[in-house]
Amino acid sequence: MDAKEKAVAEENVLIRAGDCTLTFLPRLGAKISSIRVKDHELMQGPIAPLAPRTRTVAFDKADASGWDECVPSVLECTVDTAAGPAHVPDHGDLWRVAWEPITVSNTCATFRGECFSLPLALERAAALTQEGKGWQLRLDYKVTNTGNHPAPWSWCAHPLFASEAGDRIVLPDSVRELRLAGSGGARLGPADTRVSWPMAKLANGKTTDLGLGQPPESGIGDKLFAGPLAASESWAALERRRLGMRIRLRFHPAVTPYLGLWICYGGWPDGPGPKESCVAMEPSTSAADSLATTGPWSRVLAPGASFSWPMIVEIEPI
């Protein structure tokens, strides 16, 4: 561990309930770097050393691990505002900056981060409890416009859950189709293709089960969107079959009616070097990764105004 990694590690914040422990890295966007149940790590590990970020570094040049918060955009973009054009970097601002710890206890932690591309601040409170044989992580978010002009914004959770061959992604039965945002090698076709779930046709005419985890040598990297989802559909789960655990996200149907789904089995980053092997279930305020892509999901926050929403993560035996 070099000096930079050591400095980051020394500032870890841990909360726990029974055999479940969460680790936060305040200096690195209050990243949830680890969700561990006994000896089982549930999050994607770093593909590069943990180190302070710059305002311009690409996401694939950093550690690309754990759970970050994407505000005010996932994709790099430029948006027009009343204060002039605002340039938002790759995966947003908040994974790049140190967050301020507000409150920390054995089972709860609250952090606040300030954006730099737009006058926005995000507060995230995390509370971990043991529920029967499993655990519940409740996350409460609040975004505030700290500026003097209206500010457009979007939010997307970015939890990279470790995955392996034989795992199962489970969506509500009513979800039969998703919109393709992108697919490595165009294996599912061009962007904006409607893709059947879970059995989908590949661009080469073959059929694949998108819900079934694949080995990292498969080289898969797909991003899809579901939604808008109804109240009864506002959940997604990853079943870790070998570990005998299910990770289920429940999200607010009015505030975050969209679900991004990043399925990566060795297909990203491009080029040589370590790859992700993970599934990211990403509740989102938007049906698109770019803040510059507008639609009925677009949101603008007035000066001084705040907006709040919850999310629940359930970890349970199967």
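The record above closes out task 2.4. Task 2.5 opens with a second protein, given below.
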Amino acid sequence: MTDDTPDSLIPYDEIVQEALRDVVGRVLGEVSVADDLPGEHHFYITFKTRAPGVEVPDHLVERFPDEMTVVLQRRFWDLTVSEEGFSVGLSFNQLPTTLVVPFAAITGFVDPAVNFALQFQALVDEETPPGPADHAENDPPEAEPIEDGSNVVAVDFKRKK
């Protein structure tokens, strides 16, 4: 492509982002229906803590003012999935908590058991510059995600201005 490629009048980037978020919704929906994770599957889900619709206790937002990553592995309950997002019960420092996360707030989804990862642009206005995502200490991971790029779909479309 050259620099004189015209801007698209079709919002391809938004369409692809929405389709990939549907993958996360479908996976979480299947886990919700089964009420358990199959095999060794477990998920790292990174989301914007201050995005519209996110419901996270204030002490967690103070600790993770931009993004946080939660782990769905052994200790989670009441996973509920809707068209807009999901809610899940997790324990933080022995305190049971329910998180509500719209799919639009998700910036990453990883299943390290099968080397699968999706990365998203947040569908929210950025008020604070993005910082590194830190793992919330809800469930210590058994294995770290592999960061070699295998099976990773990164969508980062840039529009010419």
